[in-house]
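agent: user wants the structure for Probable nicotinate-nucleotide pyrophosphorylase [carboxylating] from Halochromatium salexigens. delegating to structure tool.
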Amino acid sequence: MPTAVPTPDPNAEVLSRCLPPLDLIAAQVRDALAEDVGTGDLTAGLLPAEATARAEVITREDAVLCGRAWFDEVFRQLDPEVSVDWQARDGESVRAGQRLCTLAGRLRPLLTGERTALNCLQLLSGTATRARRYADAVAGLPVRILDTRKTLPGLRRQQKYAVVCGGCDNHRMGLFDAILIKENHISAAGSISAAIAAARRLTEDLTVGIPVEIEVESLAGLREALEAGVEQVLLDNFDLPELRRAVELTAGRARLEASGGISHERLRMIAETGVDAISIGGLTKHVEAVDLSMRLVTPSV
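agent: tool returned. relaying tokens verbatim.
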């Protein structure tokens, strides 16, 4: 069976910075185990308490691996003596049939944690795999592919980490770390200019700079935003000719982000218009888990 050959990982530092804090990962795993194990694993109770075994996890399809920290934490909480030996890293491309890791320890916790651990790994690997497809589509172009807040409830930190594992970038984490003025905000403020002015008043007393971005739906809206001096503009559902014209009008005065109805098939054409970034909700809201399997290889009862 093929196994990964370890190679230097230039992205290790980036992934380390994006990995959620270990206490958050532990809390997320506790919640996941609680919903599956509840008051106890009834089926595992059929097995001898001291029986031990070895197991392996393989992928049944090509993918980008993501989620090792959550997988490891499942077994750490169930039995710290369970060992996990990884043959692939987060962010690494793996091939169908490849062994991802081997486990060894008491049989009961191995089987109790199997489903929760695989759920974490297959979901995040699915997000990372999708992100890699989008990153590959614009390879060689000076554009960033960004995720959005369209994440699964309660799983935002995990999914945004997976996006980075796949080679794309994070937009704001939530409503607290950046200002994005959208259609309803503009409507409530009265105009694009008024909304930008209100954002400036809100942020002028902050000691840490908060990014301000505004969404526009037309070239006229873009002109108004540029006249107001905004630094980032989201171009919502612009077609290709409009995107090219927007880049010409802006002439580097603001960073431009294309968004809305972005498909994989059109991605490179959109990137070639010269926009600085493209945000894609489908990176995280369209979930297709990777097919993984865990099998005992040396049970001992």
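agent: one observation worth passing along. The longest strand covers residues 52-59.
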